[in-house]
Design goal:
It comes from Massilia pinisoli. This is Tryptophan 7-halogenase. InterPro entries: FAD/NAD-bd_sf, Flavin-dep_Halogenase_NPB, Flavin_halogenase, Trp_halogen. The chain crosses the membrane at residues 6-29. By secondary structure, this protein is of the alpha+beta class. The protein is 34% helix and 19% strand. The protein has helices at residues 16-29, 56-62, 67-74, 110-119, 131-137, 164-177, 293-302, 347-360, 369-395, 403-409, 415-427, 440-449, 466-486, 490-497; strands at 8-12, 34-39, 77-79, 81-85, 93-97, 159-161, 181-184, 187-192, 199-204, 209-211, 214-217, 234-236, 245-251, 261-266, 269-275, 280-286, 313-316, 320-322, 326-327, 330-332, 338-339. Strands 5-4-14-15-16-13-17 form a seven-stranded mixed beta sheet. A hairpin with a 4-residue loop joins strand 9 and strand 10. The model has no long low-confidence stretch (mean pLDDT 95). The structure holds flavin-adenine dinucleotide.
Length: 500
């Protein structure tokens, strides 16, 4: 029997999570539901979160966001991957590039031929076989030319860097044009129905009650509804990911506009560098047990490309996830649902993923428990698999110059991650489980980039002759080099693209 539909959806919070949710719901629900968003100018937003992964393109496309207009509105740039500096050992440098590696031709994946030739000392750097890595190294960018068949130029996989505050503003404009009502002010508490504990309203400082059937908690770390009202609990993962603070500061830009994020490991954490059109976003993520706030600020400010634009802004966090992202009629999206540090720029994607899941399990007035349980199970799956990939970056280090890194290299890691590393170590095999976010290519690049190589390669590699493999790999690298030569400079491409 059909249960009555919801009438009013209240989104609590207007950061990236709140406005992405509002835009997506306003687009998908086509005006059939009343959508209200409450945000407080006084509290503000976390205001970091400027690097993304390629799936953001899908969000923008579905939301009807025009790319050049969006880049202009947010001072955005293109991103082809993340460069990791000092992670395996001090002085090491590798790129985790988007998209594929090499060109599959025979029985097993390209990487398996690479493992054999590397062991023989006959392979080039992995970056020579990937269009995104090679282009990033040369500061080149262009949109994929899908008309070029199987040319690497048809496969340029990319994401964006953007100003988080301007992105939220851009989404707000879109949402309001699609009927979302914005309410400004501070929520002081929530009220609950007596018979089942569902939240029925949030109460504003001025006494107004904002009532609703479904509440989406996008209130950031505080988790105003999911934690402060419903007390669902938080699973702390800081024994695996011990960094607990960040300092963020933008600086003046430099003439070269790099099409990638950089993550540089320091003595007790790491520093991000995110190039925008008008400035560079920087932040030092660190573990307060190993470095003081003053030292952390000194490290950050000593490693900027240009003059800082203001003082470093402190942010505190505990890595982990909310035990239930959906409880009763409250769904937590964004920082209220958990936090994984931004080494692989995953948080905005987690928001997008949660919105899609909410649409998949969209409730009626019945709020069916099996749907809620399925939503929570899937949230946990994605959080845990992404967490393991991030732990890998810390665990797979051979740095003996700092206590922090030695502790990371000796930690007890989750069983699923142990299994993955062991599988890779024997024959270079990787297995992507279901729809986990990072592909075999992503894992491969980080493992190899941090000096973990398999003891042996796939036996079927030897079906091909060594000369044949060499010829094949050289031809892939040659084609990629020619393609990169053809590509325009990243800054020149943006200037032209955003000109109109
Ligand atoms: P917030 O931005 O904190 O928004 C919370 C909203 O709730 C605000 O509008 C606030 O006004 C409102 N609110 C709260 N309490 C009340 C109240 N009582 N009454 C009314 N309104 C209220 N993600 C990436 O994908 N890439 C990155 O590179 C990246 N870097 C990061 C670096 C750091 C150091 C951190 C901490 C996070 C980073 N993230 C990154 C994560 C990203 O910043 C967040 O996922 C994203 O900004 C979403 O935040 P949010 O909207 O959940 O919370």
């Amino acid at each position: 029997m059909q249960v009555p539909h919801l009438n009013t959806i209240v989104i609590v919070g207007g950061g990236t999570a709140g406005w992405m949710t509002a835009t997506a719901l306003a687009t998908a629900l086509r005006g059939r539901y009343r959508i209200r968003l409450v945000e407080s100018d006084e509290i503000g937003i976390v205001g970091v979160g400027e690097a993304t992964i390629p799936m953001i393109q899908r969000f923008n496309t579905v939301a009807g966001i025009e790319e050049a207009e969006f880049l202009k509105a947010t001072n955005g740039t293109f991103k082809l991957g993340v460069e990791f500096v000092n992670w395996g050992r001090r002085g090491d440098r590798y790129m985790h590039g988007f998209g594929r590696l090499g060109q599959d031709l025979w029985m097993v994946g390209f990487e398996q031929y690479w493992h054999k030739m590397r062991a023989l000392g006959k392979a080039r750097d992995l970056a020579d076989y990937s269009i995104t890595r090679a282009a990033a190294r040369a500061n080149k960018f262009m949109l994929p030319r899908t008309d070029l068949g199987n040319s690497p130029l048809a496969e340029i996989t990319y994401a964006y860097h953007f100003d988080a505050g301007l992105y939220a503003r851009h989404l707000r404009k879109l949402s309001e044009s699609r009927g979302v009502e914005r309410i400004e002010g501070k929520i002081v508490r929530a009220t609950q129905r007596v018979h089942d504990g569902h939240v029925d309203a949030v109460v504003m400082e001025n006494g107004d009650r904002i009532e609703g059937d479904l509440f989406i908690d996008c209130s950031g770390f505080r988790g105003l509804l999911i934690e402060q009202t419903l007390a669902t609990g938080y699973e702390d993962w800081s024994h695996w990911l011990p960094c607990d603070r960040a300092l963020a500061v933008p600086c003046e830009s430099v003439p070269v506009l790099t099409p990638y994020t950089r993550a540089t490991a320091h003595q007790a954490g790491w520093q991000w560098r995110i190039p925008l059109q008008n400035r560079i976003g920087n932040g030092h993520v660190y573990c307060s047990r190993y470095i003081s706030d003053d030292e952390a600020a000194h490290v950050l400010l000593s490693n900027l490309d240009g003059k800082p634009l203001g003082d470093p802004r402190p942010i505190r966090f505990t890595t982990g996830m909310r035990k239930k992202a959906w409880e009763k009629n409250v769904v937590a999206i964004g920082l209220s649902s958990g936090f994984l540090e931004p080494i692989e720029s995953t948080s905005i994607h987690m928001i997008q993923d949660a919105i899609q899941r909410l649409l998949d399990y969209f409730p009626d007035q019945g709020f069916s428990q099996p749907d809620v349980d399925a939503f929570n199970r899937l949230s946990r799956f994605h959080y845990e698999r992404t967490r393991d990939f991030i732990i890998l970056h810390y665990y797979a280090n051979q740095r003996d110059d700092a206590e922090f890194w030695r502790a990371c290299a000796h930690m007890e890691i989750p069983a699923a991650l142990r299994e993955k590393i062991d599988l890779f170590r024997t024959h270079g095999r990787l297995r992507r489980v279901d729809s986990e976010l990072f592909t075999e290519v992503g894992w491969q690049q980080v493992l190899v980039g941090q000096n973990i190589h398999p003891q042996a390669y796939h036996p079927l590699v030897d079906v091909q002759s060594e000369e044949g493999i060499q010829e094949y790999m050289d031809s892939v690298a040659d084609v990629i080099r020619q393609c990169v030569d053809y590509m325009p400079d990243h800054a020149a491409f943006i200037a032209e693209y955003c000109k109109a």
